[in-house]
Design goal:
Elements: E1 2-11, E2 14-20, E3 24-29, H1 36-48, E4 68-76, E5 79-87, E6 94-97, E7 100-101, E8 114-117, H2 123-126, H3 129-143, H4 146-174, H5 185-230, H6 243-246, E9 253-258, H7 260-265, H8 275-288, H9 290-296, E10 307-312, E11 315-316, H10 323-344, E12 354-358, H11 366-376, E13 381-386, E14 400-406, E15 409-412
Parallel strand pairs: 3-13, 3-14, 8-12, 12-13
Antiparallel strand pairs: 1-2, 1-4, 4-5, 5-6, 6-7, 9-10, 10-11, 14-15
Helix pairs in contact: 4-5, 4-9, 5-8, 5-10
């Protein structure tokens, strides 16, 4: 997949921007705070319907304006693809695909395939499970967009169930109250809780199994990608291995999906229980913890509390991996995502995803820069942001298109000019 043109209107620092984009490697160069990341963030937003920097849309709209518009042209499997997105904080965002309105915004998921690596990704290793769950869900929705609806249904039920638990906690502390129409409020709430249990188990089992299957598919790519990032030998193009051989490579890096539901099932890493098995165990666990959940006013079991554990040398990477090892692991996660889409999802006709490296090279030591440059050189399209040309490693070979970015503008540099 290739981005061919990007138009921004009132998006972040750009009242208006029209930028043609070439295949191959494009480097956005400019001082900090000039708007380089804003450009790649817009592309990422089209892929995931979220920003990698802020949790809310208000920051995406140019100061003093009410609406931002992203318009992008792509080539997907050799055919033109036009995507338009209108962002209006406080209201429903609207999208058009090939000039036609998209009834639900989630209908855009899966159309634009991109993989982004940014300094914030260090949090995948060092921060809380929420970011790792989000990483899995973003990739899952690109591969199988229907799970965005499953996740939305799960979140809706989770909110309703948790609100009911809070009400039941208040009733327990203050008495059950007067009966209405001969029905005891506590009995009515308990019956309602059982209904929410059924719904949460239904959507939760579907989501949990999809995440687990994704982690199982990512594992060989992750281990292999870590070797390529962390060792000079692994980054050599001659050592590139097809997907079916990567699971045989011995690597110190690994990922495991952690869930009390899987522990209860006795599921081993790499296995995949059925949705029914997961559903039944989840439902049983929900029922068993009713008293505890009412006391705490919160739902304590389900995929909203699961984690993707990242391991190094058979230890949890969080708290164990050094700073350099953590960078290598974060890079390996994104490269594993890229390879999964490129090598295993290409038969869907979507082709290779766009690879975005947002201010990455400045965060890496010289050897990791060189390895990463060697790995991504042959990618169909790479978008790179950097404040300094000198951060671009010599191993990033081939024709490089440079775009000079200053506040409110982005202008392609003359092709004859050097990148470094």
């Amino acid at each position: 997949m290739q981005l061919t043109a990007l138009d921004l209107t009132n998006y972040r620092s750009y009242p208006r921007l029209t930028l043609p984009v070439q295949p191959g490697i494009t480097v956005l160069v400019g001082q900090n705070g000039q708007g380089k990341t804003n450009i790649v963030e817009a592309v990422w937003y089209l892929s995931t319907l979220s920003s990698h920097r802020v949790p809310h849309d208000a920051a995406l709209v140019h100061r003093g304006e009410t609406t931002a518009v992203i318009r992008a042209s792509f080539l997907r499997a050799g055919r033109p693809l036009q995507v338009d997105l209108e962002i209006t904080p406080g209201k429903s965002n609207r999208a058009r695909l090939q000039g036609q309105n998209v009834p639900r915004l989630r209908g855009l998921l899966g159309e634009v395939r991109a993989v982004l690596f940014a300094p914030e990704d260090l949090g995948l290793i060092k921060a809380d499970p929420e970011g790792r769950r989000r990483f899995l869900d973003e990739l899952l929705f690109v591969i199988a967009p229907r799970y965005a609806s499953v996740k939305a249904d799960y979140d809706r039920v989770l909110k309703q169930r948790s609100n009911l638990l809070k009400q039941m906690r208040s009733m327990r502390r203050g008495g059950s109250g007067k009966s209405v129409g001969g029905l005891d409020p506590a009995d009515t709430a308990a019956s309602t809780l059982e209904v929410w249990d059924q719904q949460l188990a239904r959507f939760g089992a579907d989501l949990l199994r999809a995440r687990l299957h994704l982690v199982n598919r990512l594992r060989p790519h992750l281990g292999y990608s870590y070797l390529r990032v962390a060792t000079d030998e692994g980054s050599e193009q001659a050592l590139a291995l097809p997907p079916d051989q990567r699971g045989d490579v011995s690597s110190p890096a690994d990922i495991v999906y952690r869930s009390p539901v899987l522990d209860e099932l006795g599921a081993l890493p790499g296995t995949l229980p059925t949705t029914r098995e997961i559903h039944d165990v989840l439902l049983t666990m929900l029922a068993a913890r009713h008293d505890e959940e009412i006391d705490r006013g919160a739902t304590l079991t389900g995929p909203h509390r699961d984690d993707m554990e990242i391991r190094l040398h058979d230890f949890p990477a969080k708290g164990y991996a050094s700073h350099g090892e953590s960078w290598s692991l974060a890079l390996a996660l994104r490269l594993a995502s890229y390879d999964l889409l490129r090598l295993e999802e290409g038969d869907l006709g979507d082709g290779e995803p766009i690879l975005i490296l947002d201010d990455v090279f400045s965060e890496l030591d010289t050897r990791r820069r060189e390895r990463l440059g060697r790995i991504v050189t042959d990618a169909s399209q790479v978008l790179i942001t950097t404040a300094n040309d000198t951060d671009i490693p010599d191993t990033l070979d081939g024709e490089i298109h440079v775009v000079e970015v200053s506040l409110g503008s982005a202008v392609p540099r003359d092709e004859g000019s050097a990148v470094r």
